[in-house]
Structure formats: structure tokens, C-alpha cells
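Please annotate the following for my students:
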Amino acid sequence: MIALSDDAKVVVTKDSMGDLEMASGDTNWRPFYGGSSPLAWSFVPKTHDMVISDSAGNAVFLIEQADSKNARVLLAAACRPDQLAVTGSGEMLVALDSSRSALWTINLKSRTATTVPLSQELDSLTLLRNRTTFLVSSRKANLALLKISDGAAAQMSAILATTAAGGH
């Protein structure tokens, strides 16, 4: 897993020991401070701010200016999402715990988390090109689109599977 800032000046990855390390500018790789047991991490668009899901802290944190040693800011407690994605505006974070099929939206400006009720178990979360819509999938149900507004409202709609004539 790797995260790269939009301007390509900061990169964060996991080393062979499972610790996060980063490089920025012309610096060498160095330890990244802020995640002791990271499950997932992502940059906020057009910033060097990073969100991290930390299994040891059982929470999601924001680290402003990830290339500094700023303190972590708690965004959501009692959660362990293994997939994170930030909308293109940088205002909303979507977090999925695929092992428990739990989904949260987190407003990064107000720093409030909302649990999204689900009618199906979700396994994966992929941000689509328009940067406000996500493709969510499940092993037990059809694909669905998840649309997130900047007000944290989540709207999910199923994508019906079709087969070509004579296909299986």
C-alpha cells in the first residue's frame, strides 16, 4: 500500500516490518509518525494532510501536514476501517471496515463521523473519476454506487447485473 500527495512531493508506504515510512522532496526515507498499526491511509486532495486508520488506536486520525511531526487529531473512535477514500473536494472521508461490513462518512471540516446504515455486506470501496461517487461491491449482492454529498449524506443505488443474449 502506498499514498502519494497530489503534487507528488510526499509519499507514504509501509516497510517490510509493517511500519509507515515517508519521503518528501529530496529527503531519504524516514519513519512516519502518526500510525502505530496502520490499516489504511490516504492523502486529502490538494494538501499534505493525511488520514490514517490505526488498528492499535481503534480509530481514524487526521495528521495535518503529514511531512511534519504534527499531532494526530481524532476523527472517529471505536472503528477499524481497512479502506479509506476522500472525495475530490477534500471535505468528506468514506471509511469501510470490510471485515464487519461497516461504513462511515467523516466530515473533515467539522470532524464529525456518521455511521451509514447498510442493507448489504460490503467488501470493497473504489472512488470513481468524478471524485464524489464510489463503487461498492459485495460477494453476496450486486455492485452498487454510493454517492456522498459534502453534507455527509450517503445515497446508495444498486447496479443491476445484465447478461448478453445467450450469455451465462
In short: The two ends are 35 Å apart (CA to CA).
